[in-house]
Write a structure and sequence with these properties.
20% of the residues lie in helices and 26% in strands.
């Protein structure tokens, strides 16, 4: 059975997110962008020095065990300039990235991917760079407009492009454990929660034309088991439903508490109607922390804070660091 061995410490740096927020107070395990930049030597606070928010998500994740550290890149946000600017402003050494995980096949998570690969490989080393993907990601998606037209989404980079830029694409529906078993990547997420019915109005282009695709079955979650704390679950958009994501994580890591869920919960737009059911169902997981952002939406964020309090709920924001 594919699983993940406990790590001693986990660091998460948010490289791209919808929001920027360095003024709100944060708990002790979180560092704001401004605090991080000051610690790294920023002398003058200026818009020229800080990150840009954009509609998307990207996280640099580093796990430590017995003096060994492994770093991966989880998504890249919507476009290359935001990704490059933010990593430059934060002083990120992308050369330490050993693997890339794409959570699902949407432009707001993969638009910066080719630039990211180039930056990771900019030191000139012709090294192995695994890129974990699901075969269903490489399809054209779209959404219907009010006038009846279909609006295509930008395609994510294909296997040929990724390979040409130096990535080794691992395209599979099966779960994976990698980098000394510090990281676990799920397989397809079982859809078992009755009120989580996918993303309404999401379509995929086939040979027969546009067809409904609410399930976005290529989405996966990433997990890291932190010793003495439990599982940190990364869910970039939760198109499967965050309750389904957490149920799958609990099943896969039976007996290990779920410590934190971090990422987008997609409770905005057409899925706002399930906010009450979702918040109530999340109580069963007894999470120590909920770090929600990206596509979660302000209504869901308000409901989460009301239900769980600001000691548990900490919104993500570009430049923030989380330590577990």
């Amino acid at each position: 059975m594919v699983s993940a061995k406990p790590v001693d410490r986990l660091e998460v740096h948010v490289l791209v997110d919808n929001a920027t927020d360095s003024l709100s107070t944060v708990p002790g395990h979180v560092e704001t962008e401004f605090a991080y930049l000051n610690r790294k030597g920023m002398r003058i606070l200026s818009g020229k020095c800080i990150c840009c928010a954009n509609h998307g998500l990207s996280c640099l994740i580093t796990a430590h065990r017995d003096g060994v550290a492994h770093t991966i890149l989880f998504d890249t946000g919507p476009e290359p300039d935001t990704f490059e600017r933010n990593t430059r402003q934060l002083g990120i050494d992308l050369g330490v990235v050993e693997s890339i995980v794409l959570s699902h096949g949407h432009w707001d998570h993969a638009g910066g991917m080719l630039r990211a690969i180039d930056l990771i490989r900019a030191d000139g080393r012709n090294r192995d760079l695994p890129y974990y993907a699901h075969p269903g990601m490489f399809r054209t998606r779209g959404r219907p407009m009010a006038n009846g037209d279909m609006q295509p989404m930008e395609d994510i980079p294909g296997i040929g492009e990724l390979t040409a830029h130096g990535a080794r694409v691992v395209s599979t529906r099966e779960p994976q454990s990698f980098l000394d078993a510090m990281f676990y990547l799920s397989g397809e997420i079982p859809r078992v929660t009755p009120f989580e019915t996918g993303l309404p109005g999401h379509f995929v282009k086939t040979e027969a034309g546009w067809e409904p695709d609410p399930w976005i079955i290529d989405e996966r979650w990433l997990g890291v088991n932190v010793a003495g704390k439990g599982l940190v679950v990364f869910t970039a958009c939760s198109h499967a439903g965050v309750v389904n994501v957490l149920k799958d994580a609990r099943t896969r890591f039976a007996g290990i508490p779920l410590h934190c869920v971090l990422g987008g919960l997609h409770l905005s737009g057409p899925t706002e109607k399930i906010i009450p059911d979702t918040v109530e169902a999340m109580r069963q997981f007894e999470l120590a922390y909920i770090a929600a952002g990206h596509c979660t939406g302000w209504r869901a964020m308000t409901a989460l804070v009301t239900a769980f309090g600001d000691k548990i709920v900490t919104p993500t924001a570009v430049g923030k660091r989380f330590i577990f």
